[in-house]
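Researcher: I'd like a candidate sequence for this fold, 248 residues long. If you have to choose between options at a position, lean toward the conservative one.
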């Protein structure tokens, strides 16, 4: 049996004010079994193709797996295998077709199953949790700036405006993309609120400014719409995508 909780959710994905096309994708499994956000890159149609492939291939694999019966080890292995398969296919298409040669994508997810909520990512799309007024980022960016912060070379404040801010060392479309999603199992608590987002959200909003948006009254769809609106108002120059999940 899955953890006896109920989830409610909402999602929004917009092109934004500065881009001509939307390279982001998101997917919510109709029964709330899993939630995905991908942010493609590569220019022209390549970014759109990469994120579309990632979502389609990962959801196809996850839909076939029974997360209500699997322990944490089996569940996380299934997720990593699904993401690794998507990475292999994206790399293969990039080698076959010149127009997709430079494509890649991030992916971030929340999966609901027997162990609880499983979260993870590849790239710099993120998962946050708001619990009792405290916001925690549950994923780690696979960016050069985050690596520099981890090494103590630059401060977190300097990372916000660093020239390598958007350069990733791990994403789907590169061999490192098959090295796992650093999955974490989170015991769900009633009242928790989760946010899965592309970096279009965090380009326009600081972590601290997310707190009142996630803590506000309203259903998850209203909350997702407010977050996207606030990110655009905050100057985000990217596509903006988020999924908001409430635990009841």
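Model: Candidate sequence:
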């Amino acid at each position: 049996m899955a953890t006896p909780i109920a989830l409610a959710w909402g999602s929004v994905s917009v092109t934004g004010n500065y881009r001509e096309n939307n390279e982001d994708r998101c997917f919510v499994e109709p029964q709330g079994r899993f939630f995905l956000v991908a942010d493609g890159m590569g220019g022209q149609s390549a970014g759109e193709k990469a994120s579309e492939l990632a979502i389609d291939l990962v959801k196809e694999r996850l839909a076939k797996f029974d997360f209500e019966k699997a322990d944490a080890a089996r569940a996380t292995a299934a997720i990593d295998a699904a993401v690794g398969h998507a990475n292999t296919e994206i790399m293969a298409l990039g080698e076959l077709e010149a127009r997709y040669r430079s494509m890649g994508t991030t992916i971030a997810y929340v999966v609901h199953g027997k162990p609880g909520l499983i979260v993870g990512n590849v790239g710099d799309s993120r998962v946050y949790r708001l619990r009792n007024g405290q916001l925690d980022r549950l994923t780690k960016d696979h960016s050069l700036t985050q690596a520099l912060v981890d090494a103590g070379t630059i401060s977190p404040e300097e990372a916000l405006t660093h020239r390598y801010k958007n350069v990733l060392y791990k994403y789907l479309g590169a061999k490192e993309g098959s090295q796992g999603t650093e999955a974490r199992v989170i015991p769900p608590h009633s009242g928790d609120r989760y946010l899965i987002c592309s970096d279009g959200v965090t380009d326009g909003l600081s972590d601290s400014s997310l707190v009142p948006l996630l803590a506000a009254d309203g259903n998850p769809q209203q909350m997702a719409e407010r977050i996207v609106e606030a990110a655009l108002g905050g100057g985000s120059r990217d596509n903006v995508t988020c999924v908001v999940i409430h635990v009841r």
